[in-house]
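Please predict the structure of the following assembly.
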Amino acid sequence: MSQEAKVVTKKKVAGKPSLLTPNVAGFAYCPGCQEVLAARLIAEVIEELQMEGNTVGVFGIGCSSFLILRLDIDAIIGPHGRPPDIATGIKRVYPENLVFSIEGDGGLISIGGESLLGVLTRSEKITVIMLNNAVYGTTGGQMAPTTLVGQVTSTSPKGREVAATGFPVHAAEMIAIFKGVAYSARGALISPATYKKTKGYIKTAFQKQLDNIGLSYVEILSACPTNWHLSPVDSLKWIEEKMIAEFPLGEFKNVDKIE
Amino acid sequence: MVKAEVIIDEDLCYGCGHCVKFCSKDCIKITGDKFTAEGYLLPSIIKPEECTACGVCAWMCPAIAIEVYKYEPELVT
Amino acid sequence: MSERVFVEGNEAISRGATAAGCQAFFGYPITPQNEITEWFAREFPKMGRVFVQSQSELGSVNMLYGAVAAVRAMTSTSGPGFSLMQEGISSMANAELPGVIVDVQRGGPGSGTIRTAQQDFFQCTRGGGHGDYRTIVLAPNSSQECCDLTQLAFYLADKYRNPVIILSDAIIGRLREIVNIETIDFGPLPYKNWAIRGKAKQKDGKRRTVDHSADLYHRDPNFVSFLIRLGKKIEQMQKSELRYENYKTEDAKLILVAYGYTSRVAKEAVNMARAEGTKAGLIRPITVWPFPYEVIREKVRQGCKFLVVEDSLGQMIDDVLFAAEGRAAVHFVGIIDRHIPTDGGMILPDKVFEKIKEIQ
């Protein structure tokens, strides 16, 4: 008669992705900042696509640039707004690499407007990621292209006024118009469901590049408690109640072929 | 039998409260009696027996401070 | 590979870059260097190399920044575009990237003119962008030099992991001359262990990073330690990379100093002066940075007078005055001495010879 025994095994269900390196002494993200969470999604997707050995991340200026210290992939940091150009340079000379650029809203749409327009025009086979927190975070919370109407920032102390400063820019919708764009989506990280969906957007975006279809874009609404002057939990509520009303989530373009 | 274990790295945690918000079983709470050297209030697993090891607290933690383990009985012959 | 062709300076630069193994070129339309961009647009795709017309010079210099993290690459422009590139060049200097940037000078400031001038000297030799850095600046004065110095630029950029500038002008750029195109071997260079290849292709399997703040991104222990390192690099370039030409200076009592197209004008004026018995000579900087201060000082010690010939209101003359340390007379033939006062004017040997006679 065979022996039977009950053994309890301990299985890890969730933890740190291997491409995400520990917090480096000397730079810490604010409590409740979701930029590292976005980096976590990127790290998980790169691992799942088995592209750790062939990925180059391009970073600009801002809190997102310090993700270079957290993501264990080849990385280039360049001047404010220039990542799409830099990504063009490295992708064109090493087309077999997965190349993505990551910036905040101020970097990509304001100072980086021409670089963004350049890659959209030329339909570069790169993935552009934008972390949208509706302010210039690193420099203390100044008004940015995606600042909501009426939102108080350090350079719109009475709230963003339409007459003087126009309206928030909808980058994902705008980018979807370009013919050379294969994919444009906007996600958030306010719940497990949106987390999963946003991770799916990143995976789809990277796959569009690997399949050489066209430019792919993912925008992620990201909490900035320090500059919004809200608690980390209230920041998530602000995204849910205010930001998503202005910046709807979803896929705005998803094509498998561009002719 | 203990079903799951949630380990929060108290060197990395800065008390943002996202894990408290996202636990669907209300297992985690910031009780106010634990804090770090910088003064961040640390969360505690107040209902470890309710934890199902869904992993959502680890996913949503912006400090990447949480690990979740599941204990599974296995029959071995 | 050896080829003998009859081409303008602009094309000679393109061919020199190709001979040096340049893998990518990024450019934007601007007169008087469109021939460079157009040559690469025609020829590089045929060779399987990369050509991209960017959306602006801001784009070109940053595409260059990304590409040279991996391979040899180049961009080209003229004055207004070169101004747009300053942040990128400053960033390359901090990031220790080997970019090659060509400036085919035109009249300035602003949109200036589309024809020649020599008004970008300060911008090139004093860094040009923000912060403490210098770049080697090579100044060809013929199509042959356009080809050869471009090859040298790639070598020096890799040797020092620093941007190198090629300072040409519209006349040299559009003047057709015979060029022997040969790949020049400047010597061995170390394996680029720092370059980006993808972790999978690195010998140690580890990632590589390129950043433009050694302090912010923890590349150096601190800001000052990084600057000490950069300062040593600058010193080394100054000590080892000076290039110049002495033309009939051995017994000369009047030394002309000129670079680029005006150096050929000055050479002609020296010949005219010699024919009339005046002992004139020419020191021609080939690197305008590092600048031949000691060569000039030697002539100062011999009691020489100096005549700077420069198609500007006076930029290189500052370096000659600095070398002279107030112990020699320094005269000037500049942009207001052009043969006609228009954008199409230039400094001619007659005018320089006239000045030589006047100084004597």
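The first strand of chain B starts at residue 4 and ends at 8. Chain B touches chain A at residues 1, 4-5, 12, 14-18, 20-22, 40, 53-64, 66-77 (CB under 8 Å).
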